[in-house]
Amino acid sequence: MDPLLFHRASGFLMASKRDFYEILGVPRDADGDTIKAAYRKLAMQYHPDRNVGNHDAEMLFKEAAEAYEVLRDSDKRQRFDRYGHAGLDGMAMPDFGNAQNISDLFGDIFSGLFGGQRGRRGPQAGNDLHMGLEVELIEAFRGVEKTVRIPREAACSQCQGNGCKPGTQPVKCKRCDGRGAILQGNGFFRIQTTCNGCGGRGLTIPRPCDTCRGAGRVEEFQELILKIPPGVDDGVSLRHHGAGEGSRNGGPPGDLFVQLKVKKNTLFVRNGADLHFEVPVSFSQAALGGEIEIPTLEGKLIKQSLTKGVQSGEEVRVRGKGMPSLRGTRTGDLVLHVRLETPRQMNPRQEELFRELAEIEKKHVSPHRKGWLDKIKEFFGSTEEGSPRV
Fold first, then answer.
1. Quick check: 322 and 231 in contact, CB under 8 A?
2. Looking at the DSSP assignment, which residues form a beta bridge with residue 153?
């Protein structure tokens, strides 16, 4: 039997309504996305614009729409699961059987399903504000309070942000009938656009406020103290609730997002929680070892021991002297990079001592240098032609 014949006649042939899950072809534990996808498929298949004059397709379209209207609503779905169709008695439901204008009947459903906009009737929060702020490395280390002056739009105190002259109220937009959007087109593919009569709000203001001229907001400068915690790094965003722009229709203000940038330091280079610092050492310090003084972001010099024979380019790690963690879990390290400093100018006594050292080094070659010289000799070993082996 033709499935269309089974539920035909005076709206529907069957004595009782079919199960909504059966109509959409989804299991009873289907999630919202599955239900939406199933309805979209049926709506596109049976939409009257694609089935002109086909009464059966129109009935199936309405049937699917009714099932979706119930199953997409958690309260209606819960009552249907528990009591069946009888559980929906007395609940607000569209008139699926006698609708003359199918676009009006399913406008709300389609706007949510196909990405359209609904009219925004309730108070909306104001726009969020975004700003950038530079801090010094020492400020990021210690934490700091910064006073900033922010230009923003705040709710008008005269009309409390609703844009209306005191004693009056906004009214439903006549152009879009309060929906905030207008559906254009005659075929199956229709375009929904924001209503230019109300800007998508669904409301218009017949008597605007004299102070804000109906905008609901006025420009002002806000002075704000920003508390920047220790350990912040580039890209960290701090959120300040209620410091954004005021609402256009009496809702709460938006938020302020502050994105931080830590300036480069001439002495320290930051890498995550660690700080890197180049320390020049003399030949005698490198050879003999000993203590050197190094700076820290704590604002004081500390002493650090160097081992005898430390090499240029070697790293010395000072634990716990780096950046604090933003979450307080650990503190980074201060990493010293040893750079052997060759004297460019020497007094006569220094030069005399270096010459003595050079004579000693000729007689007592270090193991590392001896191994290097042996490799040179091997590389340039004699052949029968007297050429180096390469």
1. no
2. 219
Q: Which of 73-77, 246-250, 279-283 has the lowest mean pLDDT?
A: 246-250
Neighbours of 144 (CB within 10 A): 16
Cα 71 to Cα 87: distance, rounded to the nearest angstrom: 13
Confidence label for 231 from pLDDT (cuts 50, 70 and 90): very high
Q: How far is CA 108 from CA 32, 69, 199, in A?
A: 16, 10, 18
Neighbours of 244 (CB within 10 A): 25
Q: Determine the Cα–Cα distance for residues 331 and 87; give it in Å rounded to an integer.
A: 61
Dist CA 353 CA 283 (whole Å): 12
First-to-last CA distance in the chain?
91
pLDDT for the residue numbered 160: 79
What's the pTM?
0.53
**Can you tell me whether residue 82 is helix, strand or coil?**
helix
Residue with tokens 């119930």: 70
CA–CA separation, 145 and 152 (whole Å): 21
Q: How confident is the model at residue 132 (pLDDT cuts 50, 70, 90)?
A: very high
Find the range with the poorest average confidence among 11-20, 174-183, 289-298.
11-20
| CA neighbor of 68 nearest in space, from 101, 44, 100, 98 | 44
Instruction: Output the pLDDT for position 249.
Output: 59
Q: Which amino acid is at 388?
A: P
Q: What is the DSSP letter of 210?
A: T
Residue with tokens 């390290």: 333
